[in-house]
Amino acid sequence: MDGGTDTKEIYENVMNILEDLTSNAHKLQEQVLEEILKSNAGTEYLSRFFPNGQADKQSFKTNVPIITYEDIKPYIDRIANGDTPSILLAYRITQFIQSSGTSGGQPKLIPMTAESFEKRMYEPLLPDLVIKRCFNGSDEGKSLYLYFIKPEMETPSGLVASLYTTFYFKTKSFKTGLAKFCTSPIETILCSDNKQSMFCQLLTGLLQRDEVVRMGSSFASVLPRSIKFLDDYWKELCSNIRTGYLSDWITDAGCRNAMSLILTRPNPEMADLIQQICEDKSWEGIIKKLWPKIKYITSICTGSMSQYIPLLEFYGGGIPLVSPNYSSSEACFGINLKPLSKPFDVSYTFLPNTAYFEFLPVNKDGGGKAQDTRTIDKPVDLVNVKLGQYYEVVVTTLTGLYRYRIGDVLKVTGFYNKSPQFQFVERQNVVLSIDLDKTTEEDLSKAIMKAKIVLEPLGIMLTTYSSYADTSLMPGRYVLFWELKMKGRKDLPKLDAEIMEQCCCIVEESFDFTYKSLRKGGIISGLELRVVKHGTFDQLMDYYVSKGASITQYKPPSCLKSKEAVKILNSGMAGKFFSSKTMF
């Protein structure tokens, strides 16, 4: 991709492929399912649903149940413990992908074959080319992509389990492909010490600041974390640049060797410039100031990651935010063909050749809450979804997932040829529950987004949030944790009790009829809002990372289930406020 002509030709070829895929969505979906059934119908799991040996689409839809991970987990556990993979799929399993979701507190294990892994390695290329087409000159510079790994674990069968990204970063395809355009040497990405990795990646990014034309991470949560790290360590980073000497606490051999090839001489002029930028009381637009040639920031900003959009817009200073694709450990679903869309308006075009997709209709009542109608309505195929309707996605793959509920609720926003385009709406899960009330992630997010509007005229930003149901007292109540900061400063804003109580009331007023009825009847106490100090949620992330979570795929929990996690947030509490008991 050295020349503009070559890039244009590659882009045109890619778009021709996409045109072919999306124009033949129905045919490709039929072929995908046919291949899956032809290969795997004889497995222990599937064969029991085809007693007559008739493994066609009709019998598949009639006999094979729609499942969750808990239904398939006993088979995966058997394989992980040494049983033959043929109980679930015909192909040889080469590794397990650890999902960022959990089952019983443990990461989900998703089987992966050599063939499926090879196909997925090309996933980043499609959205990358589409994005570069929209930003002139973005293929000529370097990428400050903040990537991290998580140590692999070996199952009793000898099969290794790790995050998909960890496997991918170790492949020749990544090392000779995307990594060549990154500011971070591969050794810094593969460093298992996240702190040393972060320091070195930011240092190399600063040293090459005039070459950086794009910035990104797998998930949006990583970028504010990186800016917070930069805030904590910019003086030391400047010292390294000024002296040309790497800090002694960087002990990882790979990092030190890689940095010795980049940090080759003192550069006091660059250090002084970076220091001047970082000494500014306001870090609004700090990314643009430190990396003036950046054209866009790429990261998944939809779903639970949308809470970081205002913060990234603040730090970005007008740099476009691009959410490139919709993917999970289980499968690749679609890509964003309109990178210039506003983050909250992003739709993903489904790729019909990656898996077999079905969609469970989901109604939306007047309050916006998803209502479960799956026992009434049958799932529909990819090409039969209706514009404006809501669905929960169900996936069937060659790697042993059959009619598997992902848990995501999507809204059909349009079509690209015959392939539908979806907007991510919510995870189909309840995050808060007391008595008969069940508040979903979407309900909570919408309520908080309404309440934070009160703070914006005061220059106060909500940087992140979480919640939990406190049932230690009777009646129980919902508790929110908010981390706030001033737009022009890094310190905690002065908290006006009247304003904060107003936020509590707005959140409660945004909840549904069931909550309001229980609240009025005294079954649920008034909502409590606890404001925590800047950096408290970083401590929460450190806790989850220490328990095995990946910094790359970390998703802040909308609702806390761990007593230790609640304790961490409580330790940073700067103030607490309650909703008026007479609001109803």
UniProtKB/TrEMBL annotation:
Residues 348-427 form the GH3 middle domain. Residues 11-38 form a coiled coil. GO terms for cellular component: cytoplasm. Residues 442-564 form the GH3 C-terminal domain. Transmembrane segments: none annotated. Keywords: Coiled coil, Ligase. GO terms for molecular function: acid-amino acid ligase activity. Belongs to the IAA-amido conjugating enzyme family. This is Indole-3-acetic acid-amido synthetase GH3.17-like.
